[in-house]
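Quick start: what a row looks like.
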Amino acid sequence: MSYKIIVARYNESIEWLNSELSNCIIYNKGEKLNIDNEILLNNVGRESETYLNYIITNYDNLPDVVVFTQAKISDHIVLDKDDINYLLTLKDQAFVNNKSIPNLIHSQTNIHSCWDKKWNVNNGQFVLENNYFNNLQITFEDWFKTHINSNYPDPIHIYRNGIFAVKKELILNNSIEYYKQLILQVNHHINPTEGHFFERSWYYIFKHIYPAVTKRAIPKIGITLGIPKEKGDLFSNGIKQNAIFLYKLLFNIGKYDVYFIIDRKTSENGSCLDGLGYKYVKSDMIIEADFNIIFTFDFMLPLDKCLLLKELGTKNIFYNCGNLYMIESEGCLFGGKERAFIYERYNIFDACWNLPHMENTNHFWLKTLLRCDKIIAVPYIWSPEFIDKEENKYRKRSGSKTIAIFEPNISIMKWAFPAILVCENAYRDPNMVNKISKIYATNINSEQENKKPFSLDNFNKLVSSLDLRKDNKITIESRYNSLFIMSRYADIVVSHTWENWLNNLYFDISWMGWPIVHNGKFCKEIGYYYNEFDYEMGGNALKEAILNHDENADEYLLRNRLYMQKYLPTNKWLKKQYEELVAKFIDIDSNE
């Protein structure tokens, strides 16, 4: 594909352009250079007049991509020197995205920032008051609405200092007459105020060739999902499970066309979804897919795609399933693998949907960091479709029970030791000594991707004071599927979490009839509940499960399953709740 670099020069050195000089046109408003690709212009209009002059003159003979730049860029952007590679990067971005990514995105501050919509008026005094076209003093906002777009954007995307690249198709999206009218705004003065207006407007002058998102009678909804290599791993990851549950619920509502959006890194694993009844598109086709709503779940789309989708009218909703407050705080405090954060200095998302048990610690964390006013608590969704199998059902064994602890041990939010303290409190009852045969603490010595180092030495020192350790009741195990362990080796699950009061583990275990002792205060009705950090209460709940569960197993199973109906993707109340939530973010074409 062809390209040209259009250089707006006054008296700057252009030696840094030498390697690409054959692809440059130097529009010179200063001392003559006497080179072949030099065009002399009168010194009016700043770089804006130069760019418009080029477009008008070459409207019928444009290259595939045009890079617009000033002759010195190191004093305009954060570079140590004038670097041709920076311009070539902009060119490559335009080849892929039709125009380069803006280097400034500004949200209105109302404290007289130089990028605000009324930046050129301060205390009633117009900046450059004698430099306006026809001496008509006008705010940037009013000028923008008159000449660029009647809707002023907030945040506004800016090519700071007028350095950017754009594809030919976007230039031709406007008529030559449009550019002839625009150039009149700047060719009247050596330093027209409108030249500064153009700097803030180029992103919007070159409109995307994509049409606005289609209004449909059946809205199109996408959910981001990273695909693992093995199909089984698709159903063992909590966030992926929650994404699938949302897909099922939206599909069951029957009013949406639902897809997964799979990322480029894992798209070769897309076959994991084949045969499961899920529709999906690859993320590199996200614009063409024309979604009405995208739920950011398992991964975030590239920033440039998010910005373009926002411009086209697609709603992007961040669906939060995890305790980001704890995870991100621990990442700062204790290190581990470097994280990729989702936060910017402007609002990417139209809303954040937050699961109920994430509200306490994450509502204002997300509201502040996402700069998003719509943080909405949404109902929890769960489905037994991955686990409701004959081999996973509860079975009675001997009176001496084996206990399993399945906390992942990658965060203080979910780790094994508090659950061990629950077991210890039960075991210290002399009547329980022969009732607890073994405790499996899993997810400790496995090599998991992204797992923080687990200090087994410190863990052993902490455990060494316990009666359970003295009597060799505790064994350290790797990572296993929870119901695989239950169906073959264990009888009772003991769990402890912090600020994670709804947990797929509770539901999986309870649905299949296995006793689980837990502190999930948002679902006290299932399993055997104890309060938060009350390990004595937890010990008593464990004793209740050990002594009485076998006799009450049928009633326990019925009680759990009746209660959990409210979370199923087929539940009428749950579908109604989500339909009302979706309706707030979607325009439906009733005539289609």
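That is the whole record. The chain has a mean pLDDT of 91. The chain has 21 helices and 22 strands.
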